[in-house]
Every structure is written in C-alpha cells, then in structure tokens.
Amino acid sequence: MPGLYDWLLELPFVAEPYSGRSRYHAVVRAPMLRLQRTGSPRRWKAAHDRLAEAFAARRDAAAEGVDPERLWAEQPWRRAALDVLYHRLCARPRTALPEALRAGIELLAQRPSRARHWARTLVDAGEDADDAVLREWGRDLLAAITDHGPRPTAALGLLLTRAELTDRDRAAALVARAWDRFRAGELDAALSDHGRAVAVDPRSERAHQGRAVILRSLGRHEEALADLDRAEEIAPAWAWAVRERGETYRRMGRLEEALTVLDRAHALDPSDAVPLGSRGLVRHALGRHEEALDDFDRAVALWPEYAWALVRRSRVRTVLGDPVGALADLDRAEELNPGRPGTEGERGEVYRATGRYEEAVACYGRALALDPEYAWAHGSRALALEALGRLPEARADLDRALELDPEYAWARAQRERLGAAGVPSAGVPSPGVPPVGVPLPGVAPAE
C-alpha cells in the first residue's frame, strides 16, 4: 500500500534510520527476535540462510570491476559482506564464527570505524542469536578496538591468542600487527612479528614484503632485497613487491635500476600511486624535474591523501620556481598528517630558497622540536644561519648533525669549510652549498 512504509517509520517503536536503514527499537526488537528464534528454530535458521544468500548475491554484484585485494575497502561490498556474516552467524553461530573472525584480520588493518562496524556485527549477532561465545567475542573485540584508539594491536592480539586460525590467517594477523607497530615506530616488535609470520607461513609474500620494508628502514638493504626476491618468487606479478624493490634501490642510490623497476611496478598496477611517487623522487634526483612533477601530479590524482608525495612534490616545485605551490602542498600534507618533522623541514627549504632565512630558521627549529635527532634539519638550518651571518650558530648546528650522524659526509665538509673560511656576506650562498630542494648528501630530509 502506498505510504505504508512512511507510516511505519512514524511509529514510536521504530528507531531512526541508520546508514539508510530503519529498524525496530531494541525494546521491541529483542522479544520479536526471541519469539522467532525459540518458536521455530528450524524456520529461524532457514530465514537467515535465505537472507545470507540474498546479501551474498548483492556482495558478489558489488565485486564486479573491483580489485580483489581491495574489496574490504569498498563500502558497497563491505556492507553486503558484513550482512552476510551477520545472517550466517545468526543461523549457525559456532560454524560461522571462524569465517567472521578471519574477516576481522583484513578490517583491523583498515580504518578503526570499519573494524568497529565488524565487531558490532558480532555483538549484534551474539545478542540476536543468544549465543554466549559469539556475544563474548564481539564484546571483547569491540572493547579492544574502542579502548586503544586507532591502533588495532590489542584486537589482533585477541585473534592471535584465542581464535582458531589457519597458518595463512595467523600470518596475515601477524603482518597486520607488524604494520601497525611499524607505523608507531616500534621497529623491533614489527620485525619480530614479520619474522613470526614468515615462520608460520613461509609462502606468505606479504610477510616477506613487509619484513623487507622494516629491514630497509633499518638500513639493512641487502637483507631487504633477499626478502623481496622471495616475495617475487612466490608472487611474480605482485606489484607491491616490485615497487618496494624499486624504492629500496632508490634509497641505496642505485637510481637507474630503481627507475627500471618502478616502471615495471607501474605497468603491473597503473592504479597504484606509490610507484609513481617513488619514481618521481628518482627523476628529481636525476635532475629530470618536469618528469618528476608529472609523476607526483599523477600520484596525488590517484590518491589525494598521499601526504608523502605532497611533501616531495613541494621539493620539485621549489626547484622549478613555484614556492606558492610548494607551500600549498606542505599545508595540505600538514592537514593530513599533523606534527611531522619532515613537513616543517621541507617548509624551511622553501623559505630558504626564497631568501626568507629567518622564517626558514624558525621552521627548522619547529622540525627539531618535533624530532631533536633530525640531523638533516640541523644541517639545513646551518645554511640558513650562515646566510644570516650567524656563523657560530651555524657551526654549532653542523657539530650537532655530526654528533647525531658521524657518517654525514656533507655536514662534515660544510663544517670544515665554515671552520676555515672567513665570514661570508649575509644572504650570499657559500661555495659548495647544494641547490635548495635537492636532498643534502648523506641524509634524506623525510624518508
């Protein structure tokens, strides 16, 4: 009947629409479901089986044209998939629980809101099916997700210690926890988790690739390449392993090899912004600034929240004489990832390039307040201080850079130059000072 649904929505026992759906208020919904469940358990299961099949068809339709690796990131697919899980859990709680827990491994590696939605699905199914085990799982996972902010470590720990996981799933959970620990700067713990993942599932390409990234960040490049060799043996066409090889070559200074490998990574997955970002930095280092800018533009177009590429595009824009664009990139990067020392350091570079030395010194100071061991910022601030004629402070900054990194050859050369030469004219670059926007030798500004 026309208008019947609108009339139903106006009734006091119908809750406000949530995510485009309406439902009965919990006060009346719970006894209605209990009556259905206890009145005819067979009919209860059959109804949920039919609903699971209907949502599975909707889920499969939503998967068309979507990369299988990114299904959980797509809202239409994710929403239908969680509906499938809910109805399967209601029909057969114990049988469907392992599948539901496996789904959480993928979601816990994504946004906290998605993980909470998954945990809430388990809670709701536990309540509606009146299953104590399912209800306890849902509540414990929801508490772990809610009480630990954006970090999924606690919830993944629950899965690793209490869930019956296959070796493949256990490795995936360890890899997800390792990435969280890596982002938090807990490198030893991250390396340990990746190592455990490799031990549990030696054919996990993600475990080898992830461990390679950690090893690379520790400067252990050859070990990183060995792990990437193994990842590519397992999955030869997996673009992520190829792109990490290219980035590793870049950090080793093997720029031409990096360029070749990153070309291949981009060809394997043109929708991935990361190889374009890495290739842009390689082309910048090779002096091919216009091509570098094009790569960064394309990377940001694919991934507008790609803060890493925005910061590095600012370097290229500085070199190409576009300080306004460079500062706009840094403003956007700061919005996306506030409080990063590399962003402030790069802002100092833009100001130094335009002769705004006092502002440059202030930016480097803010970068060092965020990270007192940021040797590159000490070296760059020394150049700005030198341009202002503040030689003693410039020497002190270079001394501090060398204390932090005794292998910082560029800083050592500049320190020797300032110690031997007379005071240069304020604002006049000294001989041997590299152009602004080109990373100082030995230390990259913000890897």
Can you offer a commentary on this structure?
The chain is mainly alpha-helical and 447 residues long. It has helices at residues 4-9, 26-39, 41-62, 75-91, 93-108, 112-129, 132-147, 153-162, 167-183, 187-200, 205-217, 221-234, 239-252, 255-268, 273-285, 289-302, 307-319, 323-336, 341-353, 357-370, 375-387, 391-404, 409-420. α4 (75-91) packs parallel to α6 and α14 runs antiparallel to α15 (273-285). It is elongated and about 95 Å long.
Indicate the topology.
Layout: H1 4-9, H2 26-39, H3 41-62, H4 75-91, H5 93-108, H6 112-129, H7 132-147, H8 153-162, H9 167-183, H10 187-200, H11 205-217, H12 221-234, H13 239-252, H14 255-268, H15 273-285, H16 289-302, H17 307-319, H18 323-336, H19 341-353, H20 357-370, H21 375-387, H22 391-404, H23 409-420
Q: In percent, how much strand structure appears in the residues?
A: under 5%
> Could you list the spans in which at least 5 consecutive residues all have pLDDT below 50?
422-447
Shape: elongated
Order of helices and strands: HHHHHHHHHHHHHHHHHHHHHHH
Give the CA-CA distance, first to last residue.
63 Å
> In angstroms, what is the radius of gyration?
27 Å
State mean pLDDT (0 to 100 scale): 89
What is the number of independent domains?
4
The biggest sheet, with number of strands, parallel, antiparallel or mixed sense and barrel status, is: none
Structural class: mainly alpha
Q: Can you give the helix content as a percent range? A: over 70%
Our count of helices gives 23
Per DSSP E runs of 2 or more residues, the count of β-strands stands at: 0
